[in-house]
Amino acid sequence: MQLSNPDPSVLARRDMIVAALTRLVPDGTISRPAGLAAYDGDALTAYRQAPLVCVLPKTKEQVSAVLRFAAAEGIAIVPRGAGTSLSGGALPRADAILVGLARMNRILEIDFENACVVAEPGVTNLAITRAVEGQGFFYAPDPSSQIACTVGGNVAENSGGIHCLKYGITTHNLLGVELALPGGNCVRLGGKASGARGFDLLGIVAGSEGLLGIVVEATLRILRKPPVTRTLLAAFDSVPDAGSCVGEIIAGGIVPAAMEFMDRRCIAAVEDYCAPGYPQDADAILIIEVDGVADEAADELRCIVDIARKAGATELREARDDAERAKIWAGRKAAFPAMGRLAPDMLCMDGTIPRRALPKVLARMAEMAEEYGLGFCNVFHAGDGNLHPLIIFDVMKEGELERAETFGAEILKLCVEVGGVLTGEHGVGVEKRDLMPVMFSEGDLAQQQRLKCAFDSAGLFNPGKVFPTLSACVEQGHMHVHGGRLPFATIPRF
Amino acid sequence: MCTAGVCRLRLSRGFEPMARLQARSESEVIDAVAAARARHSTLEIVGCGTKRGFGRPAEADDELDVSALSGIVSYDPDELVITVKAATTTAEIEDALGRRRQRLGFDPADWGPLFGEPAHTATIGGVLSADVCGPARVRFGGARDHLLGYRAVNGWAESYKAGGHVVKNVTGFDLPKLMCGAMGTLGILTEVTLRLVPCAALNITLVARDIGPDEGLALLRRVWTSAFGATGLAYIPGLLAAAFPELGAVGRGAALIRVEGGRVSLDEKMAGIRALAPRLHLEEADGEEMFRSIGDGRAFIGKNLDVWRLFLPPRAAASCPEEADSQVWLADWAGGLLWVATSADDHASARRIRAAAAANGGYSTVLRAGKVTRRRIPVFQPEPPLLAALSRSVKAAFDPLGLFNPGRMYEGL
After folding, report:
1. How does pLDDT run across A142-167, given as a tens digit for each residue?
2. A3 pLDDT band (50/70/90 cuts)?
């Protein structure tokens, strides 16, 4: 992945920009190198880039003021929540203002009768559930980073998580937002009511990866916590058996709350890391969770056990209490850090495939790992076919980063080839930007870019993310050309 | 394939006859749009024509009949995904799904008869474009939550695809959301891919009779915010009970609660719901027909009434009819949706309804009214100026010349 060269005319104005932002957000403008180093990237750790300047507004008025200034000066904006994006969605630019929303962290309203919470964008995902669990409610999207990631970032990335198989991803649990548009004006989309209201712009904002605006307030649906949760660990001595078990469960009309897959290598890594007690002789395990009223959960679990036995499960172990359940999940949730111990660097891929293609894709990925000579394991949301192959490598070893990225790209191409998509929940960001043409034709991408131009004709919001080229606003006659130069002329366009 | 004839010549723009064009494939749709671009003429996109009475009256020069774009392209029951051509009737789709005990989660209603058109002829493209969701929306979400991907022709006469064929996908902008409820103003859908929901083994409806709106809707909200996963939560006031003969006498009104599951889990859910309302007597009934009737708006069929749909925070539902001075109403989605009827062309009531919905943090849509009313009163709640400007930009990003269904959503858009 090639990062763009910064626009020298912006760099030349840096002192003026810092002074102006300091006036707008006096206690939250970071301009010293030591301070900026803390904001030089996100969870796509292979890329680092300090921002031009970082500003941490505390109110929506401050966000608006910053955006107004940036628009007037023609300076790009990179929005950031907690910086946990795995696709580089919050990767700064040397010529852009990084707008961090983490200080806007108040829950504004909890409305149990309308089953929703109104929150500022910097509230963490887990804080929503923490705020309502005393009354028996929870917020369903639960990305692995939920202790740190923010709801604003969740909206931008349309985050999923382990339990989205049954409860949906962010867009299905989002009722409304207030969005600060390029230029600083704010619009309200949706609210506490659901149903079609004009164009569904809320649906577009979810997953827009910071290209359309900044969420300054979100209204989130909360759900009643199911009274009973049951968790099953199923071990298999072949990966295809585990894959076919997944397909049979879905085809059987059962929608578990979660259905997770881990392969042998991952099982071994997490055992070394936190000893969750997974069967060490298994080639693959599935963690399957059902929830609901007691009899419903029991019924579903019975069916699942039957299907797993027929699919060749060698061991079936149900968590007997919350402690055992927590132990089973601890291993799954530790998969990233556990694999991360095996090598200095890791790439986490994120394609989705039709569930029926699981055995084929898993087998092909194992062959590819051999070909590329890189460490690799599979841990993923099996129920919705959302793969997370983890590739481990050492960026200091010559050629390994390139080899890891090529391997990752080949996996994603394979996902598209079998009828799937490039990303199921991590977003395109910079990581998969150049792969977009694998899935979308020029015309498909042009249509998406025209929508981008409808919100941001000057192309100031998170430039260089998602789209491999920046041509649409020109076609539409919307591109903001300043002083006879194309905006961000230095961004590679290929 | 649609059989209800829409072959009629109408007069628009003085004496110039409206041409009725037909497209039988995506490439013919492209040709038709290219021709419209060349002629600077606008198109009303028509599937089987069951919802032509919804929205502002079309101001198009010509009519483009796409009803021949019909048929199931692929159905993969094991993946819970189906791909169909856009003018396939929902009846045909539901028939195919039913044989594999699956269904469309957004529970598309059949509004044909409500608009004086035949039943069972609505096309999936029209249903998605008008966001026609029935009672089970309360549990499974709207049309937007089930459209995974589509193919369409835009205002440049180019076909493109958006979204995908798998249930979890965040690759690029989520354009399928935008097409749902856009009333065909952003392009011509040619093919759609939908996620499916397995049918439950059984369902049953609990009925609380002679219950007032405050108490009835409070009960529905308690069940809605419980873990019992109700797939129908409606309140029918006594005044409207006659429209539901299956229901019998209801006194002040009836609260209907539909739950699904296996035999054993149904018993447990019913016991749990009864425990939420220990003082109420909840009868068991087969509510399928009643809920279908609610979704289809059958209470208003053949009556000379204007029909509104109000989308509200559920807590506001009980007081809203009184604030709007409405006598004829019923509630669905635990109060998230109010159907309200007024005398035909009663513009004073229309103003009160719109104001009441807005004051409660909701919004209102004219579902059925005469052409005069639909021209005079915005069918969709007007947007604040900044949002309206953004909507115009979005429209231009798909249809820069304004070829598709001009004026159908908002005047001038």
Report:
1. 998 899 999 999 999 999 988 999 99
2. confident
Per the CB < 8 Å rule, is A192 touching B78? Answer: no
Using a CB–CB cutoff of 8 Å, tell me whether B22 touches chain A.
no
B285 contact partners, CB below 8 Å, separation of at least 6: B204, B205, B206, B207, B246
Cβ–Cβ gap A356/B224 under 8 Å: no
Q: Is-contact B232 B287, C-beta < 8 A?
A: yes
Q: Does B229 touch chain A (CB under 8 A)?
A: yes
B92 or A46, greater pLDDT:
B92
Q: What is the structure's pLDDT at B385? A: 96
- Mean pLDDT of all residues in chain A? 92
> pLDDT tens for residues A122-147?
999 999 999 999 999 999 999 988 99
Shortest distance, CA B269 to any CA of chain A (angstroms) = 7
Q: Which of B101, B169, B180, B338 to mutate to test the interface with A (most CBs of A within 10 A)?
A: B169
| Per-residue model confidence (pLDDT) at position A334 | 86
By three-state DSSP, how is residue A114 classified?
coil
pLDDT at B407 over 90: yes
Strands B328-332 and B253-261: unpaired
Q: Give chain B positions within 8 Å (CB) of A447.
A: 154, 158, 160, 162, 175, 397-398
Quick check: A295 and B265 CB within 8 A? yes
Q: Are A42 and A93 in contact (CB under 8 A)?
A: no
DSSP label of B397 = H
Integer Cα distance of B83 and B197 in angstroms: 14
Q: H-helix or E-strand containing A277?
A: none
Residue of chain B whose alpha carbon sits nearest to that of A428: B171
Q: ipTM more than 0.90?
A: yes
**Angstrom distance (rounded) from CA A452 to CA A205:** 10
pTM for the model = 0.94
Run of H or E residues at A44: none
Which residue in chain B is spatially nearest to A443 when comparing CA positions?
A: B160
Which residue, among B26, B171, B233, would best test binding to A if mutated, counting the most A CBs under 10 Å from its CB?
A: B171
Do residue A197 and residue B337 have CB atoms under 8 angstroms apart?
Answer: no
- Residue pair A115/A137 in contact by the 8 Å Cβ criterion: yes
Alpha helices (H) along B180-241: 213-224
Q: Cα–Cα distances in Å, from A97 out to A48, A91, A92, B217? A: 15, 11, 8, 49
Domains contained in chain B, CATH given: 72-198 (3.30.465.10), 202-296 (3.30.70.2190), 298-376 (3.30.70.100)
Mutation to test the A interface, candidates B170, B219, B265, B386, most A Cβ within 10 Å: B170
b/e code B246-285 from CB counts within 10 Å (16+ = b):
ebeebeebbbbbbbbbbeebbebbbebbeeebeebebeeb
> Is the CB of A384 less than 8 angstroms away from the CB of B381?
no
Rounded Cα distance, A294 and A303, in Å: 14
Q: What is the DSSP secondary-structure string of A414-469?
A: HHHHTT-BS-SSS--TTTTGGGHHHHS-HHHHHHHHHHHHHH-TT--BSTTSS-S-
| Chain B residues whose beta carbon lies within 8 Å of the beta carbon of residue A412 | none
State the CB neighbour count (10 A cutoff) for residue B181: 25
Q: What is the full DSSP assignment across B166-188?
A: SS---SS--HHHHHTTSTT-S-E
The per-residue b/e assignment along B159-168, b for 16 or more CB within 10 angstroms, e otherwise, is bbbbbbbbbb
Which residue of chain A comes nearest to B226, CA vs CA?
A: A224
For A167-225, give the DSSP string. Answer: H--GGGGEEEEEEEPTTS-EEEEE-SS-S--SS-HHHHHTT-TTSS-EEEEEEEE-EEP
Per-residue burial over A262-298, b = 16 or more CB atoms within 10 Å of its CB, e = otherwise = bbbbbbbbbbebeebebbeebbbbbbbbbbbbebbbb
